[in-house]
Task: structure prediction
Amino acid sequence: MTPVWETLVAAARTAREHAHAPFSNFRVGASVRAASGRIFTGCNIENATYGLTICAERVAVFKAISEGEHGFDAVAVVADTDILTPPCGACRQIIWEFCGDVEIVLANLNGRMTTHRMSQLLPHPFDSSFL
Ligand code: THU
Result:
C-alpha cells in the first residue's frame, strides 16, 4: 500500500469515531480524495425511522460535492470487521456517479486492507450516459 492509502484510511478511521449508530452499533468511516487534493470524510448517521439512515460513504461524497469539489480519485472505507466491509449497493451507485472508476480501499481496525476498482464492485452500471 502506498502512503496515500494510509492517509485516506487514517482519515476514515478518525471519522468512524463520530458514527451515530445507536441502532446497529455498526460503526463505519469513509473518506474521499478530491482532485484538488482535499480529503473529505464521513461516518454513518442512523435515524430512529431506520430508513433515513445514511452511510459513511455517501456522507463523505456529499460533503465534498457540497464544498464544490468535482473529480475524485480514491475512496476509503473502514469498519471493525474481519471480512472487510464493502460499500452497500446505494453507495456503489453514488460513488460511481460522482467518482467514476476510482480505487476503493477497504480496511479494518487491525490494519488489514484491500483495494478494488469501482468497475469491479459495480459492473454494468446505470448512469447518466443512458439518459
Ligand atoms: N453502513 C455504512 O455506513 N457503510 C457501509 O459500507 C455499510 C453499512 C452503515 C449503515 C448502517 O448505519 C450500518 O452501517 C449497518 O448497516
